[in-house]
Amino acid sequence: MKKTIALLTGGTTGEWVVSVKSAATIAQNLDTNKFDVYKIMLTQQGWFYEPADSVKIEVDRNDFSLTIKGRKIKFEGVFIAIHGAPGEDGKLQGYFDMLNIPYTTCDALTSAITMNKGYTKAIVQGIDKLNVAKSAQIFKNTPYDLAQLKKDLKLPYFVKPNNGGSSIGMSKVNHGNDLEAALEKAFNEDNQILIEEFISGREFTVGVVKLDGKIEVLPITEVETAKEFFDFEAKYTPGVATETTPAPLKEETRDRVAKIAKDVYVKLNCRGVVRIDFILTEDEGDFYFIEINTIPGQTATSFIPQQVAAMGMKLNDFYTKLIKETIG
């Protein structure tokens, strides 16, 4: 029997562009012998299924169902491919929990917490061999002291919206005088901001997933960019960044990273596939946690498809196992 799956894409933030591309990759690689897939677009205007041969059909949000030619279609599970709100911040997960419909991502609480970079860092801080950059968290309508921030933190620093993704609204500040403009830019995206000391080192990202009941760490990717940091342009413009999968690392470093990555997955109570960004200082030295993405990009050039290929697995099999693990 085929499972009826909703593939949810779109969203209400600037990241919806990436979500649409991710969903296209997922749709191409879902096994049509095992799954009946309905791609549903979520926008500010509504939630719609858009069949190729007719007008779009609105989703009944009372029970998350579709009525097509008089036939009611209910879903056995949802593949959430929405980056940013409301897919990655726990809102959709809470909605599906209330309807008792399983989905492919972390639960509502983990999704909500990990969307906030500051809160996430506070939780993972105690993990063995994991370091976090010194930082300050400030809020839009609460007074903060610029002079004190400059005194507490060493330049250069990163200023980032606390709940954003895809590096939108982020700046690297090399001079104290530029801090105010960077804060303004970040406050355009979010009401909470994280100011973090810059950690010098090599930048990496690694997928972690539970398949067949076992937590697996995918091959690590090293990210090198000629830009100041891995921003939106570097992420999504071909040729701006160099991505090497698997990363050239000593075996003991790979083992150490895998252990830390698994510990993060467990500590944050993750499920499905997540991606952890980190920095290694000096000669593959200290591990600095940057952030975790609970709905990592699945576009043709994204890290997870690259890493799945590097482990010698077909995306088709990967998604089948992912659905089996999370939806049943």
Task: Annotate the secondary structure layout.
Blueprint: E1 3-10, H1 16-28, E2 35-43, E3 46-49, E4 57-58, E5 65-68, E6 71-74, E7 77-80, H2 91-99, H3 108-114, H4 117-124, E8 130-132, E9 135-139, H5 146-152, E10 157-161, E11 171-173, H6 179-187, E12 192-197, E13 202-211, E14 214-217, E15 221-225, H7 232-236, E16 241-244, H8 251-267, E17 273-280, E18 287-293, H9 303-310, H10 315-326
Helix pairs in contact: 2-3
Brief summary of the model shown:
The protein contains 10 helices and 18 strands. The chain is α+β, with helices and mostly antiparallel strands.
What would the keywords be for this entry?
single chain; 328 residues; alpha+beta; Rossmann fold; D-amino Acid Aminotransferase, Chain A, domain 1; Dna Ligase, domain 1; 5-stranded mixed sheet; 29% strand
Structure notes:
One of its GO terms (cellular component) is cytoplasm. It catalyses: 2 D-alanine + ATP = D-alanyl-D-alanine + ADP + phosphate + H(+). Its main location: cytoplasm. With 328 residues, the protein is of the alpha+beta class. It folds into 3 domains: 3-105, Rossmann fold, CATH 3.40.50.20; 113-130 and 200-326, D-amino Acid Aminotransferase, Chain A, domain 1 (2-Layer Sandwich); 135-197, 2-Layer Sandwich (Dna Ligase, domain 1), CATH 3.30.1490. Helices cover 29% and strands 29% of the residues. It contains 10 helices and 18 strands. The chain has helices spanning 16-28, 91-99, 108-114, 117-124, 146-152, 179-187, 232-236, 251-267, 303-310, 315-326, and strands spanning 3-10, 35-43, 46-49, 57-58, 65-68, 71-74, 77-80, 130-132, 135-139, 157-161, 171-173, 192-197, 202-211, 214-217, 221-225, 241-244, 273-280, 287-293. The strands form 4 sheets. Strands 8, 13, 14, 15, 16, 17 and 18 form a 7-stranded mixed sheet that branches. A 5-stranded mixed sheet has the order 4-3-2-1-7, with helices on one face. Strand 17 (273-280) and strand 18 (287-293) form a beta hairpin. Helix 2 runs antiparallel to helix 3. The chain is globular. The two termini are 13 Å apart. The model has no long low-confidence stretch (mean pLDDT 92).
